[in-house]
Fold each of these.
Amino acid sequence: CFDLDNAAVAAFTEADLTGTVRVRRSAGVSVYSVTPAAVHVDAACDQVTLSSYFTIKAGTTETLSLVVDYASAAGPAGTSHTGALGSVYYKRLDTNDFQTAGAVAIGANALTIQVASLTPTSNPSFASQTIVRGGAESKIGSVQLQAGSAENVSVQTVLVSLDNDTVQTLGDNDTLAGISNLKLKKGDTLVGVPIGSPSGDASGNSFTVSGVLDVNASETVTLDVYADLATTADATVRPFIPANGITFVGASSNTSAN
C-alpha cells in the first residue's frame, strides 16, 4: 500500500500533483502508476496491485520508490510532504505461501517545497565612485544576483534605470546628458545587447539576457554596469534595478518570476 499524506507533517491534495504517481524499482522500472486522486492523500495507506511482479533473490535488497510530479502551483513554499509505503504482500517461492511485510506504513523523509528565487543586492565591494568625464566604458554600477537553494535559474530580462538627480531620487523620469552605450557585463563577458542611447525614464532600459545569464542554486553572480561618459555627462549618475526589474525562469520547474 502507499499514501502521500502523513499526520506528522502538513497535508497536501491531489491538486499539488500532476502527471502520474509511480512506484518504481531500483532499476527505474515502474511497477505501478495511477493518476493522482483524493484517495491517495487521505492519510490512509491504500492497497494496490502491482502492474508487474518481480522476484527478489535470497540475500539481496530491492528498493521501491514512490515518485510524483509536483505541479508548479504546489505549496505554499515551506510546506512539507511525505510518502509512505507498507503492507507488502508477497509470495515465498520455496514454501509456496504468502506473507505480509511492513504491516505499518513506513514514512519516507519529509520533502519541503521551495520555489525558485533570485535576490539582487548592491555589490558591497563597489561603493560610490568619483570618475572622470570623457571615459569610454566606465564602470558605473555593480549588483549581485543570488539564486535560492531550490533550483538553478535562468535570467531572462534585466531592467536598468538611470538616475541623475543630485538627491538621487529613484523612480522619477530624468533627461540624461552625455551618457551612451549602456552595457551589462558578467566579468569580461558582455551580457545582452548594449543600448546606444539609454533612457532616464523610470521604466528603465531593458536587456534581454535569456540563455547567457544562468545562476546555479545558492550561487551568487556579479553583474556590472558600464557606460560611455562624455565630457558633457551629468555630474551625478546612478544605475539601479527597479522593483520587479528582473525576470527569471526556474531551470527544472520552468516557472517564471520577477
Note: The mean pLDDT is 83.
Amino acid sequence: IILFLLAAAGVSYFVPTPQEVRDSFTAGQNFYASKDYRKAIDQYNKILETESNLMTADSVRVSLLNGELDAGVRTAAIYQKANAYRNLGRNDSATALFRLVQTRFDTPKLLVLAQYQIYDIFYQQKEYDSVVVAARDLVTRYPFDEKVEQAYYAIGWAFRLKKEYDSSTVAFKYLVDMYKSSPLRVRAMYQIGQNDLDDSKWRNALQSFQTLINEYQLESFAKTEFEKMELRTNKERQIFDAASNRESDNTSLELVS
C-alpha cells in the first residue's frame, strides 16, 4: 500500500493538472501576442509533450476568440504552434502542423481554419497551382462553412495571377451567383470586368462594369474602395490585399485569447 501511494504521489508530481495545462496555453498565448514566437512554441510544446494514462489532454478545453470557439487544448496548441512557425517564416513546418490539425476532430472549426491557412501560405509563396488545389479541398470538405466564399475568391485570384482569365472568371462568377450577401461579391464582380479587360474582351468588360454599376450605387462604397480599384495590372496584388483585408483576416484566425 505504501509503495502504491508513493508511486501515485510521484506520478501526480510529474504530470500536470488540467489547470496547469491551461496555464501553459495561456502563457503561450501571451508570448504569442507579444510576438515572442519561440517562447510561445516552448509553452505549446509543454502541452504537446504531456502524456499520461491519468489525464487525457484532449479532454481539457480552452476558450478562444473572445469565447466564440471552445477548443481541445492540444489541438489549439498545434494550431497556434503552426501560426508561430508561420510568423517565423518556417512555412513548411507550419503547413505540416496545419495538416496535423486536420487529423484531429475535437474542434471542427479548427479543421476549416487550418485548411484556410494552408492555401494562404501557398498564396503567400506564389504557388498558385497549390492555392487552387488547397482552396478547392476546403470547398469539397467543408461545403457549408462560411470560409467557402473566401476560398472561391482565392481560387479566382490564383487563376488571375496565372493569367488564366477564363478559369478566374468562373470562380468569381460562382461567388457572385451563389453568395449574394457576401462582402466579397462586389469585388468579385469588379475582378470579372478586370479579367475581361486584361484579356482584351472589350465588350465583355464594358458589360461587366456596367452590371457592377447598375447593382451597386456609388454612395454604397467608401471613397477609398474606388481608389483601390485601379485598372493597372501592377497594382492588382496591393488591391487584393487591401480590399479583402487579408492581413486583418489572418490576425483574426490566430487564436489569441
Note: Residues 149 and 175 are 6 Å apart (CA to CA).
Amino acid sequence: IFGQAVMELMKTPPANRWKPLTPDTVRGVYEVYLGGILLHQLPGPIVRHTQSFSDNFNRADSSTLGSSWVEYGTSNMSILSNKLSITVSLGTASAYWSTVCDSDDECSQITLTCAADPDIYFGLGIRAKNTDRIDRYDAYLSLTSNTAGDNHFLDKIVGGSQSSVIGNADPAYSVNEVFYASAVGSSISVKANGSHIVGSPATDTSLSGSAQRTLTMGAFTGVTDTFNADDWSGGDVEAAGQPPKGSWMLMGVGV
C-alpha cells in the first residue's frame, strides 16, 4: 500500500514540484527525497581531541602548584581552597605543563573565578617553544579595577619579539568565564564561554612545528594583586576535513 501511494504521488506532483525534507542535526544536514533517496552532509570541520591533560586543582593548600606543572617567573602559583591562586608582586607568575603535546594543533581552557577585578593580566599560552617557552601564542585577559578594561587579547611572541594578533576584543570579563584558546593549522582561536571573541579566529603562520608543543599559563602585573581560577584542561586537537556529500538509498522506514 505504501509503495502504491508513493507511485501515485510521483505521477501527480504539485505545480512547484516535490521538495525534500531537510532535518538539521548534530550529525549534519539530511535531505530526504520522495522515492527513497537520502543525502547526508556532515558538518565540518570536525574537531576532536586526541591527547588530553587536565587539572581541577582539588588538593591540599600549597605554596606551589605541584601536580604536573613546572613553575617559572618571579612569583609563585599556589593552591588555595581547591583552586589555582596566583599572587603577583610587580612581575610574572608562570607555569607550563610538563608533557608536550603530540601535535602543534593544540588547545587550552580554564574557568576564571575572580569575583572582584584585580589589576592583573592572565593568559593561556599555546604552541609555546618546548625549550624555553618564550616563543608562543598568548591568549590573555586584561583584568583591571575599571571593568571597562576587562577585555581579551591575542599576542604572539616570535624570536622573543611580542606583537598583537587580536587587540582589546569584546566581550568583557564575567565571573566563571570559560576561557579557551586553540591553534589548528593557521587558525588561532580565542573563546569566552564557548563563543569567539571579536576578531577570532585569526589567521597566523608564525609558529608551528614539533618545537612548538608546550602549553603554558601565567599572570603578570605592575602591582601586587591576587587572581584565582579553576578546572584547567588542554591537549592536542585534530582537525579532520569535511567529507564530500554522499547519497544512500533509503530501504525502509520504521515507526
Note: The CA atoms of residues 12 and 250 lie 22 Å apart.
Amino acid sequence: ITVIFGKPTTGPIKTQFENDKNKISPFIANDRTVLMARVESEDGEPLVALWTFKLANSKGWLDEPSSQTVYGEGWTAVALQATSPDPNNENAEPPASEDVLITAEIDGKTIGNVTVPVILLPRPKIEADRYQVSLVKGTKGNASVNIQIIDGGEESWDIIIDEERSPQKLASASIKKIDNTNAELTITELEVSGERTDDTYESEKIVIRGMPPSGILNFPLECHIQVIIQKEGLFINKTGQRDGMYYVPVPIVGE
C-alpha cells in the first residue's frame, strides 16, 4: 500500500498590527507601527511562505518597510514609519492613509496577496478651551484652563509650562496631567507689592508646550494663555489733564 500525502490547502493571508496600532504620525520622530502577516492551512496551522511587503506609493509618506522579522506562531513582520516626502514644505499634510501591498509565495507560486491601509495622522495641534484668563487684583483668585493635544496618536504626551518664556510675576501657573493627551492648567493670582499705578489692569502670558514621548518634534507645538489682573476702584482718565488739573469740556447752550 502506497500512501501519498498531499500538500495542505492554504487559506487566506491574515494580517494584523502589533497592539492594534494602525496609526502613525509623520511628524513625531521614531513613531512607528509593526505590520504582521501569516498564511495558514485549512486546519489553521501556520505555513512557511516567502513574503513581500511593498508600498503602493513609493513616493508617498510611508517609508520603505524595515527588514522582515519572524515572530512566533508563524507571523512575519515589518516595522513602518512615515516622513514627509517634501521636508522643505512646512505646511505639507499627509493623506488620510497609504497602502502596503503584501504577497505570499509557497514553492515559487503566489498563493495570495492583500492590501493593508496604514492611517497617517495629521499635524499635531495643541488647543486650550480658552486663551485669556481674568483675575481681580488682591483676591488671590484662581482659574483653570483645559489643554489638549489633537492628533497626537496613542502615546503619552508631556504638556509643560515654558518657564523661560512665562514670567509668572503676576500669577503662578501649574499643570496637572489628566490622561495621555489632556492636562489642566491652574493659574493663581500672586500678591504683588510695588508702586501704585493708574492702570486699570496688568497682564502677562503663559506659554504651554506639547512634547511627544520621543521629545523630538520637527516644528514648535505651543499655545499662549493671556493672564489679565484687573484692578477694582475708581480710575480717572488722564486725557484732559494739564498742569495737575483735569479739564472737562462743557457744551455752551444755544451755540
Note: The longest strand covers residues 109-120.
